[in-house]
Amino acid sequence: MTALDWVLVVAIVVLATLVVAGMVLGARALRQLHKVRADDHGQGQAVDDALAKVEDANAKVEDANAKVDDANAKAASVRAEAAAAKAEAAAARAEARRVLETAHGEADTILEHAHRQAEADAEQVRAAARRQGEREVALLNTTAKEQAAEVERRTARIDERERLHADEVERLVERERRLATMDADLASREAALAERETALAGVEESKRRELERIAGLTAEAARTELVEGIEAQAKREAAILVRDIESEAKTTADTRARHIVVDAIQRIASEQTSESVVSVLHLPSDEMKGRIIGREGRNIRAFESVTGVNLIIDDTPEAVLLSCFDPVRREVGRLTLEKLVLDGRIHPHRIEEVYDSARNEVDVLCDRAAEEALVDVGITNLHPELSKLLGRLRYRTSYGQNVLKHLVETAHIAGIMAAELGLDVPTMKRAAFLHDIGKALTHEVEGSHALIGADLARKYGESEDVVHAIEAHHNEVQPQTIEAVLTQAADACSGGRPGARRESLEAYVKRLERIEEIASTKAGVEKVFAMQAGREIRVMVRPDDIDDIGAAVLARDVAKQIEEELTYPGQIRVTVVRESRVTELAR
Fold first, then answer.
1. Radius of gyration of the chain, Cα coordinates, nearest whole angstrom
2. What is the pLDDT along the chain (587 residues), one digit of tens a residue?
3. Which SMART domains does the entry mention (predicted)?
4. Is 9 inside a domain boundary?
5. What's the rounded Cα separation, in Å, for the pair 39 and 98?
6. Which end of the chain has fewer CB atoms surrounding its CB within 10 Å, N or C?
7. Same domain for 357 and 304?
8. Burial call 117-147: b when 16+ CB within 10 Å, e when fewer
9. Is residue 394 part of a domain?
10. Could you tell me whether strands 536-541 and 573-578 are parallel, antiparallel, or unpaired per DSSP bridges?
11. In a domain, 77, yes or no
12. Are residues 518 and 463 both part of a single domain?
């Protein structure tokens, strides 16, 4: 039962209680009335009051009955509402069962779909795991192949070392055989000398007797003459022996020196050098060539003016050429163009910004190359300024040979020869490694690179042995120490091996440098670039110092001086660029 039903029941009980109480009061009043009538018939007024009370009680009873009827009616309506509520509840339960059944069906459908999706995901995961496993297996196979190749290379190197050791053993055996032959020869010579001495003694004795008989000399006089003759003969034989010993020592020394040099060269595996004056940059598409050229050639002119590198754009698909005799300048130009192509924004102002960034990047690469060279040679306590100058030699060549690699190779050769001779290996390596340090400043300081390098080494605290080896390696100063002589020998071994140098490239570079030097010495010149493999020279002048007429005169003077001083094939075009640039800031 609901709370409303309970309230109605309680109300009915209360009304019934009131009715019963009223009936009890009415009965009690009637009994009093009969008693009063029996006692006192004269009291009518009381009877009337009692009757009035009875009537009031009856009225109350009627009201109570009316209320009970109302309560019964309300209870009936409540029961009807309760029945309606029960019907609605039954309908709601039926609807809930239907919704529950629908939810169960949808849940089954969702679960089935989830199972299928899970199976598909599991299949994808298994396929991905299978592919990952295949990739790992392929990677392991590749690694195994690389390791096998490395093992084969190491085996080949070990075989080569064993062959070299066998050759060395053969040389030692041959040397021992020659020494044994020389010992036998010396023994035979000693025996011959002994026999000769015996024969001479007999001859001298017979001569002494004959002299005594013929000349009638005294024994003292004969003894004196004999001593003088023997002394002269001994001196002659001693001179012959000394000459033979000196000749043998020279032969042995030459053979030993050749062995040391050959062994040092064989133990240094250096690359054959072949410098180029052209770099190739691959482009993502041929459309990039038009963006590099720019409107009416604006971008390519700005690029060549800023970097000093000649940009060649021909029919080669997806590639451009950068030509410059200066490898540092060419590398900076290549990095600049590569960054511009990757960025996509190519215009004169952007070219200048990227050029500065590329130049800083090349400086970092030079420093890293110097550090790697120092680690390779085994030098740690080098002054930072000398290390920075060494990094600049990464892009410097001498007769086509990279100077920094030449220094590393020379240091290794000198170290091996010093170890063979029992000298100080670190000092010898240091002297050989720094012997061409002056080439980093040959464009900035006048004089021989050997003397410039010696001044630099002395300035930054190198020892006198190292300084002397540097200044004497080209005989500007006569060598006074064994370190200087070995530095010369190691330098000659590194530069004289097959494929190390090419005279034609060095002469070409020197001609281009001379062309730029001729133009840069003129008044008012700001920048000079040799382009088109030396067939064109571009001279940028300061517009405040040189006017248009002065630019024409400058071009004619440069061309005339080039004709008088240089020998070259074809003709050289001299282009003088006079550009005015005004910059203001909008605040």
1. 60
2. 566 667 677 777 777 787 777 777 777 777 776 665 555 555 456 546 656 665 776 677 677 677 767 767 776 776 777 677 678 767 877 887 887 788 778 878 888 887 888 888 888 888 888 888 888 888 888 888 888 888 988 898 898 888 888 888 888 888 888 888 888 888 888 888 888 888 888 887 787 677 666 766 566 776 777 777 777 677 667 767 776 776 776 666 656 665 555 555 544 544 444 445 567 777 887 778 888 888 888 888 888 888 888 888 877 777 888 887 777 788 888 888 888 888 888 888 888 888 888 888 888 888 888 888 888 888 878 888 888 888 878 777 766 677 888 888 888 888 888 888 888 888 888 888 888 888 877 556 667 788 888 888 888 888 888 888 888 888 888 888 888 888 888 888 877 655 455 545 566 777 888 888 888 888 889 889 887 767 789 999 988 888 888 888 888 889 889 888 887 766 788 999 988 777 787 87
3. HDc (SM00471), KH (SM00322)
4. no
5. 81
6. C
7. yes
8. eeeeeeeeeeeeeeeeeeeeeeeeeeeeeee
9. yes
10. parallel
11. no
12. no
Q: Specify the number of domains making up the chain.
A: 4
Both tokens of 387, joined, read 């290390």
Tokens at residue 76, please?
């009936």
Q: What are phi and psi of 540, to 5 degrees?
A: -95, 125
Pair type for strands 397-398 and 401-402: antiparallel
The Cα–Cα gap between 430 and 498 comes to 25
381-417 in b/e burial notation, b at 16+ Cβ within 10 A? ebeeebbebbbbbbbbbbbbbbbbbbbbbbbbbbbbb
- φ/ψ of 530, rounded to 5, equals -90, 125
Tell me how far apart the alpha carbons of residues 431 and 439 are, in angstroms, rounded to a whole number.
15
Q: Cβ(456)–Cβ(466) under 8 Å? A: no
For residues 51 and 48, what is the distance between their CA atoms, to the nearest angstrom? 5
The answer to whether residue 176 is domain-embedded is: yes
Tokens representing 328?
């540092």
Contact 273, 400 (CB under 8 A): yes
- Check whether residue 528 and residue 464 sit in a common domain: no
CATH number at residue 422: 1.10.3210.10
Kindly report the CA angle at 91 between 88 and 97, in degrees rounded to 5?
140
d(CA 375, CA 358): 26
Tell me the whole-structure pTM to 2 decimals: 0.41
Q: Which two tokens stand for residue 66?
A: 């009316």
Residue type, 257: A
